[in-house]
Give the backbone structure.
Amino acid sequence: MNRLWSRRTFLASATAAVAAPVLRTRAATGAPLRLRCSIETPPAHTRNGIVRSYLHDIEKATDGRIKVELFESGQLFPDLQVGKALLQGQIEMAMPGTFALTNIVPDADFVQLPALYGRTIETVHNVVDGRAGRLLASQIEQRLKSHVIGPWLDLGFFNWYSTSKPLNGFDDLKSLKIRNNGGAGQAWRTQFMGAIPNTTPLPGVPLALSQGTFDGLITSFETIASGQFWESGVRHALEDHQFVGEYVPLISLSFWEKLPSDLHEFFTEFWASKIEAYRDDMAAAQARAREVVRSRGVTIAVPSPKELADKRRAMMAQQDQVAKLSNISPAMVAAIAADLTAD
């Protein structure tokens, strides 16, 4: 299948780029180019470690001609605002979840379509690295004036979590107020389950949970563990793998265009040479986080494969409605269908 980025091609060329002792910019002055990167997750989150390592390698490889600054825990911007910040030149790099881009690029919500509910990670990669991912990358460049560095970083599967009410099955979600990351797709799924959607930026979630602003949330085990959300009252989980959270590595075009072509290649090829390991690291972190969450007394209920398939079929009857509600284009729906058929 044709992929958004050919891993084989990039891995072959990346070896030479990584081995190069120093890559120098061709800036007119000796002043380093400032690269400010904003992410909202706390320092213990695996995404932070990956971004921190990538930026460190970039700075080292360019002999300090690029000066990186990483702003964590949403101290500069929550992910819901980084799209606007990139457009306005307030940051040069971000790695937001697709769910944080939907206010500017509606098609970014495509991972929420019923067709992708409860799928395997391999199937999801066929979509995000395939036609659907290519289409979204072109839209991001046009609307956010930002360059997609390469393949997306998996956050991992998202599930349901609650505070006081046990989640033994889908019916237990009814009437609960559930926080999500943003986008119409998560809100629709919440309502489909009979719950009430709420959108709150991640930095404000612990306090809101402890104060009872909402009864639970949609997120991943890694986010629950890194934020120690059991201290804010999380006690139960329903692990339905409703979608895979994906982080999109972005650099503003205004910064990108200041770089010479050799650095374009280095940014892209170095990321591509690492993405398989990065994805493995994220998957391992989710597995570890699941065990940490369980050890903290959070009960985990897992629907059967038949229950998941039945729920997906029920949701598929409303997929056109979800796409319209989320302003997902017919072209994107068709691209996903083609990727799934080719899987």
Q: What stands out?
A: The chain has a mean pLDDT of 90. The chain has 13 helices and eleven strands. The CA atoms of residues 174 and 194 lie 4 Å apart. The radius of gyration is 20 Å.
